[in-house]
Amino acid sequence: MNTTVPHIAGAASGYTEKLLYLLMQLPYPILMENKGLHVELANQAFSNLFQIPASSGSLLGTYAIQFTPDIIQFLENPSTFQEVTRSQMQQAKSAKGDILLKDGRTFLRTYIPYIGGDDTVRSHIWIYEEITHVTDSSNKANSYAVLLEQLLDVLPLDIRITDDSHKYIYLNKIAEPNDSLRSWLIGKTDFEKVGLEKKGMEGALSRMKQLNEVVVSKHPISEQKSSSNGTFQFQLSPLMHPNHSKVHVASVGWNISQQKLNEELLGQTMELYQQLMNDLDELVFTIDRTGVIRYVNPAFENAFSTSYTELVGQPLKNYIAGNSYEWIIQSSQELLDESDINDHQKKTGTLSITLSKGVESIFDIKVQKFTQVGYIEPLTVIFLADVTSHVQTQKELEQVLKKERQLSDMKTVFVNMVSHELRTPLSVIQSSAEILEMLSAESELSSEEVKNYAQSIVEEVTQLKSLMDELLLISRIESDKMKFEPAEIDVIQFIHQLVQAHFLPWKDGRRLFVEARGSERLVKADTFMLRHILMNILENAFKYSPQAEAPHLRIFFASDHWSLVCRDFGIGIPEADLPQLGSSFERAGNVGDIEGTGLGLVVVRYFIEKHAGSLQFESAESIGTVVTLTFPYEPCS
After folding, report:
1. In this structure, which of 83, 207, 414, 457 has its CB flanked by the most CB atoms within 10 Å?
2. Rg for the chain (alpha carbons), in Å?
3. Is-contact 109 85, C-beta < 8 A?
4. How would you classify the pairing of strands 552-557 and 513-518?
């Protein structure tokens, strides 16, 4: 057997997994041990030959002494076998010898020491070749060499062997596809090759320097070369001649064009990915299992006014706190703790987060499991989309819809109210007029009866006029046509005149009790609006306290405001009805047949707001109601 080719195979196996795989598939039993006698290579043919109860792959790294008993039990002369083995390993020289198995088969065992760059034996290689039915072992060895050469020809590797004078002693078909040129190159140098091809000497000079470097240093070197055939990665390694007299150089190259292309595409993809992250309006960041930030995009930096380098490596709770932080951490832990969860599963929600300038914003959030390059443990990536404006718009839309529903309800109530409020006075007016007409025709109408019926007509017409006035006021308010014209007035005198005209006495004979407290002073008010406020509050006090003590009105002058407090002793207001007082057409549930529309307080509230004042009710059923109105002295300021 030619021992040169196994050296080539042994050298090449160190540079590619494919070559190792093919060597493992060879039908020749092969065993390679390091100097510590641990298995570096054992193919399946070797395990099958000695029926070792383990796969060839599981033998890697094991101590060879462990399966020696499995080998010697098949040998006819085990002691001779062990003695020869020790001798060959000590001499560290290539050797061959026959071994006889108990089943009658004969094998040629070839020993090859692999010498490293420091002139020490790094590995022991044993190759077994059955010669039971072969008379010419040299022919068999030649066949084995041919097989290995064919193997090296089909490998996707550029394999070249040169001697210490840089002459080629082997090239495979990848290194030189032309068979004639490949045969011619054996024994030639690169200088002769470029001379034949009439090319420049620069490449040959560069290669000669590299070969010299490997021969002298006995250390491998690597380089990349680009040509019309693509980009190749080359590894040049020293290869000791079997007699240790010379250093050959094994050059193995493989095409990395696709790898380079993939790297370029990956770089472009990463640039595109980074650009996408930079352009996103969403806040994007990743955190690990402990809640530490591992990545943020520019939108996140801007939102928290903090740079990338300051954010990464910091706990998320330094920037997002409270319930929002707890939700993010809990969602992340749930995703990371599920071993069978896929990278597309996510947690979603809506959170309120306070940003760097104290601005509270609302975000739609998505938390997803994520595997980032460079991290063994998976992370979670969080996407925050600011929906504050959308939420605000939605709330405003809901308010508009609510107002529209309220308006629709008000219209319905208004139609019902107007139908009722107009029908009753119109019926009284109609019947009173018919009675007057009938009695007038019969000449039986006394002056007292005429007065009574006429009074009924006047009262109902007054009631209709009051309703129409309130509706017109509300119409002017809603169309923003009410002018606010405050003027300095003596409020004591103003109230005294109003009370004298309408409440001393009121129509049922009761007289309003009025008193003032504090240091009297002039106030600013719109007299039309103030008169309307007082008339409504005082009339209600009388109207909703029939047959009770007359209402009281007190005027208070404080240092920075003045107020009116009206107290009655009437039916009071149910507690459940207090919140909606002042809404259109809303009245307390206990008013019974007492006339009213619920519109008066709507106007009153509007006029009070124009004065920058406030309105407050305190009431209890069957006890009475206290209405407090508070105003600043300078409503315009």
Report:
1. 207
2. 54
3. no
4. parallel
Bridge partner list, 234: 223, 253
Mean pLDDT in order along the chain per 10 residues (637 residues): 39 53 78 88 87 80 85 89 89 90 90 85 90 59 73 84 89 88 90 82 87 89 82 88 77 84 73 70 88 90 89 91 91 82 74 82 89 71 88 79 68 54 63 67 65 70 68 68 87 94 89 93 92 91 90 95 94 81 58 64 86 91 92 79
As a whole number of angstroms, the distance between CA 170 and CA 4 comes to: 10
CA distances from 345 to 111, 273, 357, 380, 552 (A): 58, 21, 33, 11, 71
CA distance 401 to 569: 40
Q: What is the pLDDT of residue 591?
A: 66
Which CA distances in Å does 232 have to 43, 258, 307, 533, 540? Answer: 30, 10, 42, 96, 101
Q: How far apart are CA 283 and CA 279, in angstroms?
A: 11
How do 106-115 and 221-227 pair as beta strands?
unpaired
> 3-state SS of the chain: helix, strand, coil percent to 5?
45, 25, 30
> Which of 75, 71, 78 has its CA nearest to residue 51?
71
d(CA 525, CA 491) in angstroms, rounded, equals 9
Q: How does strand 523-525 pair with strand 513-518?
A: unpaired
Distance CA 399, CA 397 (A): 5
Quote the tokens at residue 67. 């399966």
Give the pLDDT score at 463. 66
Write out 452-482 in H/E/C secondary structure.
HHHHHHHHHHHHHHHHHHHHHHHHHHHCCCC
Give per-residue pLDDT as tens, 145-169.
778 778 887 888 888 999 888 899 9
pLDDT computed for residue 112 by the predictor: 92
Contacts of residues 8-11 at CB distance under 8 Å and 24 or more positions apart, as own/partner, are 8/148, 8/152, 8/159, 8/161, 8/170, 8/239, 8/250, 9/148, 9/151, 9/152, 10/112, 10/114, 10/123, 10/125, 11/237, 11/239, 11/250, 11/252
- CA angle 568/570/572 to nearest 5° reads 95
Separation of alpha carbons 434 and 442, rounded Å = 12
Hunting for tokens 């209890």 — which residue is that? 620
pTM of the model: 0.35
Tokens representing residue 533 in the block: 């406020």
Secondary structure element (H or E) that encloses residue 562, with its range: strand 561-568
Q: How far apart are the C-alpha atoms of 35 and 43, rounded to whole Å?
A: 19
CA-closest candidate to residue 301, choices 286, 316, 285, 317: 285
Residue 626: how many other CB atoms lie within 10 Å: 16
Element (H, E) at 113: strand 106-115
229 CB neighbour count, 10 Å cutoff: 11
d(CA 230, CA 276): 32
